[in-house]
Specification:
This protein has 164 residues and is α/β, with parallel strands linked by helices. Among the domains are: 1-49; 84-147. Helices cover 40% and strands 15% of the residues. The protein contains three helices and five strands. Strands 3-2-1-4-5 form a five-stranded mixed sheet, with helices on one face. Strand 1 (84-90) and strand 2 form a beta hairpin. The longest helix has 45 residues, at 2-46. The N and C termini lie far apart (112 Å).
């Protein structure tokens, strides 16, 4: 009697294993079929190079539009000054874009630009600030005042203004 039960248990286990193997095999076949379909779609849309380039089939006799002699680039680089000039008034004097300057040089440097960012430190002379502000006003240069002393000397900006 135990032999029949043992035989039945073994048959059930073998059946489970066989079903599991069939299921795995079926999933692998479906995955392979899906990969082949994806590969075929890629080939039909991208061509034989699969997007990696390769040797072209043309003879190259056209005018072309690449780089080489006689071809103008689409983008050119110009050494243009910044749109706004950075003016800093400190106890040491006036600097424009990091270079020491007089009031007249600061006005001349900012004249052709969109405007000026005027940073005033805590040690700046009030007279230097008033004179530069008046000079910017006469030259009709718009400016933004950044009070570095109110921001703890960091220069991150506290107030703003414009030329009268």
């Amino acid at each position: 009697m135990t032999d029949k039960k043992l035989a039945r248990d073994v048959a059930v286990q073998l059946d489970k294993v066989t079903r599991r193997r069939r299921r795995v095999r079926r999933l692998l076949v479906l995955a392979l079929l899906a990969a082949l379909i994806a590969l075929a779609v890629t080939y039909l849309t991208c061509g034989p190079g699969f997007g990696f380039g390769g040797k072209g089939k043309g003879d190259g006799s056209g005018s072309g539009s690449g780089s080489g002699p006689g071809v103008q680039p689409l983008v050119t680089t110009v050494d243009a000054p910044p749109a706004r000039c950075a003016v800093r008034i400190a106890s040491a004097g006036i600097t424009v874009d990091g270079a020491k300057a007089t009031r007249e040089e600061a006005v001349a440097a900012c004249k052709g630009r969109e405007g000026a960012d005027l940073t005033v430190t805590g040690g700046a002379r009030q007279g230097d600030f008033d004179e530069l502000r008046a000079a910017f006003g006469e030259a009709k240069i718009p400016f933004t005042i950044i009070d570095a002393s109110a921001a703890g000397g960091s220069g991150s900006g506290a107030g703003s203004g414009s030329a009268p």
